[in-house]
Design brief:
Distance between the termini: 33 Å
Protein name: YcjX family protein
Bound molecules: guanosine-5'-triphosphate, magnesium ion
Oligomer: single chain
Radius of gyration: 25 Å
Organism: Ursidibacter maritimus
Structural class: alpha/beta
Helix content: 25-40%
CATH class of the largest domain: Alpha Beta
Order of helices and strands: HEHHEHEEHHHHHHHEHHHEHEEEEHH
CATH architecture of the largest domain: 3-Layer(aba) Sandwich
Length: about 475
């Protein structure tokens, strides 16, 4: 009898001691989300009792507190599985390959068994389990959040500000056709479909040119419902107050009213459910950004990355009046900004990359305080594709990186250039171009963890306090 009670009590306490953490990872297309999650999972799965040299900065692994890590079935069976095994296999292949581009949301769950530190409870239970759910979702979904607080007219007017310079040129085909439309005329669905296709093509072009501030964000993601009318609308630019007034008074079946209706449908049926169904469930958030590629592109690309990042991160800036906190209750207590692909630069440039990222996000310290959210900035390589070497040229030694360049599959040693520690001005692109080459991944032996740069420090920030 006593034994039974003890067993029940044990079970009860055990359940109380096990805990859950939902970690969300996002970033714009190609920012390195899949590589990041694959590596994070891989580093954890390679923790063992003997040596954890791959995780020197992750205390619970280093001090032997983590006993075992395994994958378990995810909680929500309706979300696609994160393809860890397939990704890992790619790095073991000969030649090794990067993981395929992904779309939408996916999830993976790990069970981490560990030794508790609080000795008081030790006699009841030696170990506990932390269930870690990791979610991958496109940053483009976050870019759509501002739409929820804007009417069609307000959104159109906000878009007007972006359509300047280089962008206005790219938008020519679509813009010139819209200019000729009588927006008060009866809607022709085929015509709207064609124009929306032009608009989408223009957004895709922007994306290709490295521009990151794109709305509606989902228009540039591959998805199967592209032909649905909810994806067939566009903003109306350069209209006077009087013109807006006239449009409002146009017949219900006018082009204007159809555009407005589709916009509202997109807000309510596409954007909002993401926040209700997923976003409000997350405990911790990682936002990834590839800050090096825009340095390579142009000032415009860089400025757009800044707007994009600030948009993403505005949602975490809880003030009483923030849109986010009005619409959704959120549990997020830690927020980590990660500058990815840091194996493209020499190690002495890493502090610059971190500082640049910090400035991109909180220019002028305007957003320095997130109420109740522990925020950090780190530059890392999820999966390291290069080695740090010392090169000699004309008798001088300097730090360089060596790896297999993707464009010609040649092993090269190069000095990619210095990373500015502050937001660069136009001169930077004129005189100081950054050489950014893509590298092929290194082949990994079947029993070895993926090579990384400071992933352990990421783990320490995200999970260290949970053991
Ligand atoms: N050298 C290096 N390259 C990386 C690293 N992480 C990502 N990359 C490169 O960036 C590309 C995109 O990485 P992904 O992890 O697929 O990025 P993603 O954000 O999941 O991309 P989408 O699924 O298309 O949105 C990879 O194919 C690699 O070429 C890294 O740590 N080091
Ligand atoms: Mg991906």
């Amino acid at each position: 009898m006593f034994n039974q009670i003890q067993q029940q009590l044990h079970k009860f306490v055990q359940r109380g001691l096990d805990n859950h953490l939902r970690l969300a990872v996002t970033g714009l297309s190609r920012s390195g989300k899949t590589a990041f999650i694959t590596s994070l999972v891989d580093q954890l799965l390679h923790i063992n009792m003997n040596d954890n040299d791959h995780l020197n900065l992750f205390a619970p692994a280093k001090n032997g507190q983590i006993l075992s890590v395994k994958r378990v079935e995810q909680h929500d069976l309706t979300i696609p599985r994160f393809e860890y095994d397939r990704n890992r296999q790619g790095f073991e292949n000969d030649p090794p390959v990067w993981s395929a581009s992904t779309t939408g949301i996916s999830e993976i769950r790990l069970a981490i068994r560990y030794q508790r530190r609080d000795s008081l409870l030790r006699h009841l239970k030696e170990t506990s389990t932390l269930y870690l759910d990791i979610f991958d979702y496109p940053g483009e979904w976050l870019l759509d959040l501002p739409l929820l607080s804007q009417t069609f007219k307000e959104w159109s007017q906000a878009q007007q500000l972006v359509h300047k310079g280089e962008r206005a040129e790219l938008a020519q085909t679509w813009l010139s056709q819209v200019k000729q439309l009588d927006l008060t005329a009866k809607t022709d669905e085929n015509q709207l479909a064609d124009l929306s296709e032009d608009y989408t093509a223009y957004l895709l072009k922007c994306k290709e040119m490295g521009m990151q501030y794109i709305q509606p964000g989902r228009f540039v993601l591959p998805h199967s419902e592209r032909g649905a009318p909810v994806y067939q609308f566009f903003p109306l630019l350069d209209l006077s107050e009087q013109a807006w007034q006239q449009l409002a008074e146009s017949p219900k079946n006018s082009i204007y009213h159809t555009l407005e209706k589709r916009y509202q449908h997109y807000q309510q049926k596409i954007v909002k459910p993401f926040y209700e169904d997923y976003f409000s469930q997350f405990d911790r958030q990682v936002i990834l950004a590839d800050c090096l590629t825009p340095l390579n592109h142009s000032q415009q690309a860089f400025l757009e990355m800044k707007i994009g990042l600030q948009q993403l991160f505005k949602h975490f800036h809880y003030g009483n009046r923030s849109l986010f906190s009005r619409l959704f209750s959120s549990n997020i207590d830690k927020l980590l900004f990660v500058a990815t692909k840091a194996d493209h630069i020499t190690t002495d440039q890493i502090p610059n990359l971190e500082s640049l990222m910090r400035q991109l996000v909180q220019e002028g310290g305007r957003f320095a305080n997130f109420e109740g959210i522990d925020t950090a900035y780190q530059a890392i390589a999820s999966i390291r594709a290069t080695d740090a070497v010392i090169a000699t040229q004309e008798g001088k030694q300097f730090k360089a990186i060596r790896g297999v360049r993707s464009s010609d599959k040649k092993l090269v040693t190069l000095y990619p250039g210095s990373v500015p520690s502050r937001l660069p001005d136009a001169n930077y692109w004129q005189y100081n171009r950054f050489e950014f080459d893509q590298f092929e991944p290194k082949q990994v032996a079947f029993d070895q963890p993926l090579p990384h740069l400071r992933m352990d420090s990421v783990l320490q920030f995200l999970l260290g306090d949970k053991f």
